[in-house]
Amino acid sequence: MNLKHSKQRDSIKEFLATRKDHPTADVVYMNVRQSFPNISLGTVYRNLTLLADIGEIARLRVGDGVDHFDYDTNPHYHFVCSECGDVTDLNTPVTNQIIKDVQETFEGEIKGQVTYFYGRCSNCIPKN
Amino acid sequence: MNLKHSKQRDSIKEFLATRKDHPTADVVYMNVRQSFPNISLGTVYRNLTLLADIGEIARLRVGDGVDHFDYDTNPHYHFVCSECGDVTDLNTPVTNQIIKDVQETFEGEIKGQVTYFYGRCSNCIPKN
DNA sequence: GTTATAATAGTAACGATTACTGTTTTTAAT
DNA sequence: ATTAAAAACAGTAATCGTTACTATTATAAC
């Protein structure tokens, strides 16, 4: 892979680095446009895909029909609020034991696992 | 919810019941058309969504951009082959311990968990 | 500076899904 | 059996996230 430097890509990475939530391509687009008013949505998608492919960011598919992107590539669990849609990090350590368990009775080759949790986030639980 | 009976819906359920793989709406459409040549794709989608909402079938989102549907609503893990895209059942029992662990340090209310595994299925591993 | 090619902006196309609309089925009450 | 209310339908249009295309611009090695 023969990468060339690009200010737009830098800007996308920089933006992602500032966010602890997990923005969608569209949110990235909206924000990066403040520094690059002419950046195209296609450029955002292409670079997010590229960065995810080379492992510099992570692409999250949490079942809401939209891809989310995470600057933090260390394995960690995510929580998706069924009401507000927010995607947040969980700090429970990730275990790989389950992969070993599954592999025992599975003929193919397991390379990884995706797990996310859903429910109501603290903001969406009615106070009293 | 005030359901009325429909032959089309029956047929969709019947078809799903015969399949151990996890067909997409389009596959359901193709097959149910053999008994109902005029059935519309919208009807298939509407009924799959309805059946999933009332818990008679399960909707699987395994990150391939297409929804899969499962007649078996008992909790079980799925494996997604990264090469051929097949979605298959795993027989490792599902544990809820992880939910309890996560709940300990999480302020919101966790209602469930989605886990799937990916890798190469036995068909896609080169034989020698 | 030249040159090769990666990256871009802008736009068109795509595929999965949902929404709309007028018609047909189902169901329950008469 | 007839009727009436509502659910479901077929057919089609629209939506939405994403990818593909194309002509132009930026990058980087020589």
Task: Kindly describe this structure.
- The structure is a homodimer of 128-residue chains.
- Chain A is α+β, with helices and mostly antiparallel strands and 128 residues long.
- Chain A folds into 2 domains: 73 residues, Winged helix-like DNA-binding domain superfamily/Winged helix DNA-binding domain (Arc Repressor Mutant, subunit A, Orthogonal Bundle), CATH 1.10.10; 55 residues, Ferric-uptake regulator, C-terminal dimerisarion domain (Dna Ligase, domain 1, 2-Layer Sandwich), CATH 3.30.1490.190.
- The first copy, chain A, is 31% helix and 21% strand.
- Chain A is built from 4 helices and 5 strands; from the N terminus they run H-H-H-E-E-E-E-H-E.
- In chain A, the strands form 2 sheets. A 3-stranded mixed sheet of chain A has the order 4-3-5. In chain A, strands 1-2 form a two-stranded antiparallel ribbon.
- In chain A, a hairpin with a 5-residue loop joins strand 1 and strand 2.
- In chain A, helix 2 crosses helix 3.
- Chain A is flat, with a radius of gyration of 17 Å.
- The N and C termini of chain A lie far apart (56 Å).
- The mean pLDDT of chain A is 95.
- At the A-B interface, helix 4 and strand 5 of A face helix 4 and strand 5 of B.
- Strand 5 of chain A pairs antiparallel with strand 5 of chain B, so a sheet runs across the interface.
- The structure holds a DNA duplex (30 and 30 nucleotides).
